[in-house]
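INPUT
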Amino acid sequence: MGKNKDDVIKKKFDDNVVGPWKEMWFRLRKNKLAVTGLVVLILLILMAIFADYVAPFSYREQDLLNRFATPNATNWFGTDNFGRDIFSRVVYGARVSLRVGLISVGIALFVGGTIGAVAGYKGGWADTLFMRFMDIMLAIPSMLLAIAIVSSLGGGLTNVMIAVGIGSIPQYARIVRASVISLKDQQFVEAARAVGSKNSTIIFKHLLPNTLAPVIVQSTLGVASAILAAAALGFLGLGLEPPRPEWGAMLNDGRHYLRDYPHMTTFPGLAIMITILSLNLLGDGLRDALDPKLKD
Amino acid sequence: MIPVLVAVTFIIFSLLHFSSADPARIILGEQASGEQIEQLQEEMGLNDPFIEQYLRYASSVFLEGDLGRSYLTNRPVNEEISFRYPNTIKLAVSGILVAVFIGIPLGVISATKQNTVVDNSSMFFALIGVSMPVFWKGILFILLFSLTLGWLPSAGYTTWQHMVLPAITLGWGSAAIIARMTRSSMLEVYRQDYIRTARAKGVREFFVVNKHALRNALIPVITVIGLQFGFLLGGAVLTETIFTIPGIGTLIVQGIRTRDMMIVQGGVLLIAMTFIAINLVVDIIYGFLDPKIREQFK
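OUTPUT
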């Protein structure tokens, strides 16, 4: 029965009845690992949104008589050196990490995408100028660039997002530029030019929507990298101001009590790993779904 | 390469120049009067236009190889960096060796045993390696191999035993990326006609894999290895912090905490320069490996 249904859908692809996004979704949902990644990610997003209801305690509520408690029925992940509930802090930490991941990728995508689109579409000096600048940015390891930016701007959520976002701009510029170059001589762009469309209309209305496929894959993997980078900054003490919970900073706090209370590092570490793993599984699945040749 | 270096210096100088840290205040301390601070600012040329300050810094870096003096200790940054730099390079090189010696065989085995248990477990190992943050890996290794089993030391960097855990911590993530790249590159090469021809001629599978397929599959992998080296130089900051290694990374972090921007600037610049030099070496190796590229320059 299932096989017949697949055949029907495949026939629809061949007859061009199904659009490319539906085709992608069809391929994606057949990839069990990618679907698992998507489900975990949705759960994490829901957990972050409804943190106030999911977390049994406030992230700042201290219970000094109950410091370093190991996992138990009340404190599922135990408590930290201030007696704060680690489970609640991990839940609230998801809010910070996902926000940093999404917004910094948004910054990188907006700036990098615009630079890549203009460089690819205009060519000539604009292309040389913008892309050489991107090459120069790539010459500095992104983690170090982020560290330099945060040390200049200072810590805090907004600055971390800016630092991580700026470090990722060149990747998006390159991807969008490559897609725009491959598209700009196609008939639909020529047609738009022939009817007198402005350059900005051609770029934003006709070209950019057609570059979405590789950008979506890169963004999914990019959110994972951004969360890792933000956690690394937090670990180095360059992230959020305490007591706001951030997974990297929680790991750094727990490091000092590693010998006796390893639970303080285990759960924030697991939270980072599960989030990154789900984003990587989804990103890989999306890449395979958008370009099935890669999987075969 | 020179214009890139000049531009990188400019970016890093600008970033740290506009930070809120006032070098005169750092040198004289919180007790200093406004007058004293103003006088020192004047002496250090901090009131000069930005471009003039940059040109002065760039000329001392490029013409004299002088990275300035630490605001806190007044010791030359070159001196602070010189004994730490070898540790960072040792760490990054040992990390990349771990990555290459684990990543390439893993990728080859995965490709030759495509869609089997071996392939799936190798790729799962790779995926875990990519998904675990460097600092958590380091913490878990310390917990297991140093604190629980007592096999390896958790801090310092003097003997080879000190190098094992940091190298694996740093190299695992890159090993994973290299393994994934090698696998996909090998699978692509396997589809080529000359592989089929080699098999049809009766060449043993070992030689098909290692002589015919791997050599061609390695070309894109070399690029990834070069990029990973840059990633490892960045990751070294974290690894050095976890294992208390006296390297450039710990120096940068210490510089940020004490607002000693001259140290931060020197450290970041040196790592960026190393990364640029490595990319150049990778480009040269690429030319040696790929006859098509070599032909372009004949």
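end of record. Chain A touches chain B at residues 133, 135-137, 139-144, 147-149, 151-154, 224, 228, 231-232, 235-238, 248, 251-252, 254-255, 258-259, 262, 265, 269, 272-273, 276-277, 280-281, 294 (CB under 8 Å).
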